[in-house]
Amino acid sequence: MPKMKASLSQQFNPNLSRVQPTPIRVFDNQASQIPGIVKLTLGEPDFNVPEVAKQAAIESIKDNDSHYSAGSGTPALREAISNYLKKHYDLDYDATTEIAVTIGATEAIYAALFAIIKPGDQVLIPTPTFPLYEAVVNLLGGEAINLDTSNNNFVLSPEALQTALDQHENVKAIVLNYPSNPTGVTYSADQLKALADVLADTNLIVIADEIYSELIYGGQHTSIAKFLPGQTIVLNGASKSGAMTGYRIGFMAAPAELMKRLGMVHSIMITSPSDPAMAAAVPIFDSEAGHQATLDMKAAYEKRRDFLVAALHDLGFGVATPNGAFYVFAKLPAKYGTDDEAFATKLAQEGKVTVIPGSYFGDGGEGYLRMSYATSMDNLKLAVDRIKNMLNN
Q: Same domain, yes or no, for 263 and 337?
């Protein structure tokens, strides 16, 4: 095996030193080595890709759909996404100029932040939240300003937002992820309108990561783009609603002038997404069969959520019923303190159940555990039994 020339260690982008390996993956990989472990860790739907999507991919391959597509995605998929946004969320985006298909929502996050942030710029990030946002900001030489929402039921208040704006002069953007990973909390239309009223008088760009928008268990998802269409970038995709994480289909939607800048970054990064994967996503966004598959998965998630919330409550965890995504953010019983990483490690090693420490998701996550119920009911029941046995012992 070749060994890197030692002097090359000084040749890398210095911002790389500000980015650490994702602790979620590190913890999950370590725990996965334990024989017989039950995993409630990653946000990976346990359902198969819907048949309507599989068949669309197969037909694409049979039709030799194997050439470069437009960098922003096939016209068919962009049209399907445009129809989906209008039908589900009453958002109007032109398929030709205001939508770009990305390699999952992950690429959309990077492209959006890259187009906005220069070294020294600040980005507001309500926490606890998915750690990728802060990692990308750091990589770009920006500064992530974490806004702890744990004292307000994990919802950013307009007062806290205004305070942050008053205290920080170089804020360029705010990232809103809802329904939230890790809490499962979402925002009502009234709450989003209150935030929009604060942001309307600023030049901040809102990056709205709404990848879990179809997994709402009561009421209807509202996009903040409904209130701030001129300064919002909507991120979404097929990974969660279509159980298509491996197909890597996400998208960005924004006003045409903003999308021009985003598209420059996007096209340089990837050229274009995969043709069969894009073909598979079309019916997920724009067919009755695709929508019904999402509804069926959501119904199963809701049953799992209700079981897990009730079981954890009986075991002494502090847990509110999440209204979105497929995570429970459970507070450790008081007698176990707030060292969530130590508890999660002990649970994996002795209880053979692996969860993710809440502190991995930033300020406000200390003393919590994120548990994913994107797994079978049998696994959830076994996990609860093992957690109970460990606590009793």
A: no
